[in-house]
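Data deposition worksheet. Section B asks for the primary sequence of the deposited chain exactly as it was used as input, without tags or linkers unless they were present during the calculation. Section C holds the resulting structure in C-alpha cell form. Section D is free text for depositor observations; keep each observation to a single sentence. Incomplete worksheets are returned to the depositor.
Section A, Depositor: J.P.
Section B:
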Amino acid sequence: MMAITHCAIAAAGTSLILGTGQPLPLGLAILGSQLPDLDTTTSTIGKIFFPISSWIEDRFPHRSVTHSLLATAGIAIVSLGVGHFLLGDIMTAIALPLGHLLACFSDTFTKQGVQLFYPNPAWAISVSNPRRRLKTGGAGELWVLGGVIALLTLGIYLANGGGITQKVSQNLGLRDGIVRVYNENAATNNVYAEIKGVWASDRTSADGRYLIIGNEGKEFIVSNGKGVYKTGAQIITNKVTTAVGETATTEIRNIRFNDEDAIAPLQQLKRNYPDSDIFVSGNLTVDFPEDIQIPLKKNNYVTASINGTTLKISYCPLDDAIALLREQYAVGNVEIKLVR
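Section C:
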C-alpha cells in the first residue's frame, strides 16, 4: 500500500514543482519513489531486484542509507550526468532524484520515521505525537493517497495550461502570461481571446470571443469573422483571458512582386486553401494608387493605407487584399499568415 502512496506523492509533487504533465518525468519520479525501499527484500522493488536488496538488507538497517539525503545526492549525480551528457535534458532527469526525495520525506510522517541524515543515526520524524503518525495501510494513509491523487490531477491540469504562474496570469488577465500562452500555442492551435471591454469609438460593449491572429507587444490583433481589431486601440479591454482551441496549423509565407499582377498569387492561395483564415501584411508600390478605394469600417483596425504610391497592408484579410489590388501591378514583398 505504501508503495502506491509513494508513487502518487512523487508524481503529484514532481508535476507541481516542475510544472509538467509529461509521462517521462512523472514515470521517473515514480521510479525514484520506489528506490528507498531497495533496502528490504519484502518490498515490490526489493523483490524485483532481489540480489541488490538482499545485499543492502544484510548490511544496513531498514530506512537508513537508502532513505537518506546522501542517497538522494548520489542518485542526483548519476541522473543529472546521464541527463546532461546522453539525453541533453536536465529538467527531465531531475524527476528521478526528486521522486526519491519526496518519498523519503513522506516516510518521516510514519511511526518509525527515517534516518534522513545518514550516516547520522538520528531518526527524522515529522510528527511528535506517535498516535498521529501514519500507519501503513491505515485510514490516515488512505486519506493521504486521496489527497495526493487530487493534487496530481491539479498538477497535470496546471501543467497543460502552462504551469501555475501562467494559469494565474491567464485567470487574472495579466498580459505577460496571456502573450506566453499565445506564443507557445499559436503554431499548433487556434488561440482565442475572451475579452471583456468596450469599443473605443462609442464605449458600447465589445465583450466576446475573438481569434487572435497576431500580437504587437502586449496587445493583440484579433478577429471575430466580421472585422479585424486591436486591443488597446479599437477595443478598450477591462480583462483578457485566453483559451487554446482546436488544432490548427499556422504557416508564414512570403510573396515577392516584381512589377507583376498583384492578385494572381493571392487568388491562387484562395483556391488552394478555401477554408483557411489568411491575412496579408507588407508594403507594395503600385501603379495606380488613385484607383485604390480603402473602405472605412466602424471600429476596425486599419489594415490598409496609401502613402504616395505605396500601399501598406497589415493583417489584411485575403479577400480585402484582393479587392484592393485588383488591376494593379506591384513591386515589393508581402507576408502571408495562413491558418488552416
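Section D:
Residues 250-339 form one domain.
The chain has a mean pLDDT of 85.
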